[in-house]
Amino acid sequence: MHQNDFAASSTNPNGGRLMTCVLVALAFAIIGVPSVWGEDPDNETVFRKTLLPLVRTYCLDCHDHGSEIDLAVDSTAASLSANRSRWNQAIAHLRLGSMPPEDGPEMDAETRARMVQTIDSLANAVNCVQNPNAGRVALRRLNRTEYRNTIRDLTGVDYKPADDFPGDDVGYGFDNIGDVLSLPPILMEKYVDAAMEISGEAIYAPPPPEIFDIQRTASALIGAEKYRGTAPLVMASAGTVALQVDLPFGGEFELTLTAGGDQGGDEPVKIEVNWGGKPKVIDVTSEDAEDITIPLRLGRGQRKIELSFINDFYQEGGVDRNFHLYHVKLSGAQRRKTYVDPEKLPASHRRILYVSPSRDVSELQAARAVLARFASRAFRRPVSKSEVERLVRLVSDVRQAGGLYEDAMQVAIASVLVSPHFLFKIERPRTPNDDGEMPSINNYELATRISYFLWSSMPDDELLSMAHQGTIRDRSRLLQKIASMIRDRRSNQFVDNFASQWLQLRNLETVDPDTRLYRGFDNEIRTLLWRETLTFFAGVMRENMPVTTLLDADFTYLNEPLAKFYGIPGVEGQDFRKVSLAGTPRGGLLTHGSVLTVTSNPTRTSPVKRGKWVLENLLNTPPPPAPADVPELPRGKLAGTLRERLEQHRANPACATCHNMMDPLGFALENFDAVGRWRSTDGVDEINASGVFPDGTAFNGIDDLRRLLSTHRKDDFIRALAEKLLIYAIGRGTEYYDKCAIDQIVSDCHAGGDRFAYLIVAIIESDPFQKQGYRE
Question: Domain DUF1585, which positions (predicted)?
């Protein structure tokens, strides 16, 4: 098992410097994007009459002409739209209440809301009625998790590529983003090797015949010591040498003698070969060394093959007849089995090769039927006749080369598994129609998007059937299918892959709390903390609870070891079960040890990391990195409790703007130590878990923070979760033109009582999920 800011400096020595941290970072993030709407008269009127007076009142004191970040330069709505990245950061700061700064002009809630709405309408000027851009996803290959799951569901083979394939890059917080999933040559090589291994495991082919091969020089034979010479061994008179072997199987063998002789007299050298059957007499007709091959049928086990020189000839003053032996080789191959009991075949074999050759069905007919179905499932769409015929020709080629039918099918299946149509989630490019309407992806592409969203795997037969029958966009049928997919065990993949990345739980694999300080934490607890959060997320999803339950639940899932680690009594056994947290300070994700551990340092908690985590993951408002020109604080100057040291740190104006957002959120979690256990003191210091948001909202401890996030910041949380889910579901980062879709998703979720299933359905029914636009 197993994230926007607005400020700068100017003439105000305090307020300006407070804003420096954010705007310096933003200066490098501004991207000029042509406005979709150009010089829209209505937008220009709103800009001049509504926004510009607000900017003059609350912003231009620090950000006028000549300042480090000149807001006055955006003198039209079109210019503001072109610099929407900067203004979206401003919206985030206004919503958080961090702008204007504490020493700036006071802004009441109504004015703040009006300014946010006005900037949003101008910076993200999208006509939600007139065909807003649905966006386009880059060609996406399967990541490692999707590859493993798809191979399992397609072939029945659980292939584990994690240790073999290179790691997947991450974009926008997830590892299924098309823009970053490249295909380096080394990965293509791994795919080829994997395809052959997988097809060989999925389809049983009788093993190739066992080969026996033994070679001996003549001098190494039994009885060779009686004769002179080593190469060759020379028999000047009648005699015998022998080859002793232990054969692993019986069958047809070949004995090859490299031999020659002195050819005296009126007949050639004759050798008798005796192996226990009827002896064979062989003529050796050459004086020089030549290979003589003798077929033998031998039984399994110990065998002795004798070679006897039987026609010695001697004549005084003439040419003697002598036998010269150089080398002996015995080789053979076990006959390959071609029949296997069907009952002993693996389930994957029977499922894939559902048609077998017979008297009524030729091999190519069987191959055609099998490959048409297999390739259609692998490509997540019907295959064409030409695609099938190419695969059938491959089968024919392997058979003609001497391979068995099963060998040929293994090769054809492997070729499917290295096809781009399998390795990539391919969608046919489309363009808007003459009226500008965004085209819908086809039914099979929609089925693929749904299945990889909820299962991280290929569509099942029912989903493909819905695509084929054209019922996949029938809302009642689709809702039923989505509900069943959420209940299916394969949705555990969604829980693991989405929740682990959204909540950064994968960092649990590398965090290393100091176990001398935090006794009881070990690798078992590390795994159980992760499991608690995933089980909790799955429970909220499958029971279709309001998504805010993730924040304010009064229950979790524990087993006995984890309950003891937390200090919660009454839980017995190794199995996880739902446990009430009534009467305890725990409840919701923010009190999970997994989250609290990954947001801590090895030797202490980190309010900064924890506050940053809340902003990034629960409110989708990540603070920018500190600018490069902020000087490092002198070491050894900060003293007191952790809270006091951080307050001294925030006294630096260059750091205050960012930390005023993060630190109060982290302080609310200070009653939990660096591994997530409750405490009332930090050493000898009493815990002070109170804080104030930049907008002046005060809170004290985890209970207040949970309540504020699930009520006061409820819409921000649901919108953040909706955007994270949309990114994960479509495999690309969201853009300004996705605003209409996200607004609709949040609205649909509210209409369903904010329940989890309605959020999932709203994602699937959204235009970015259902349609294909263009990339700007």
Answer: 695-769
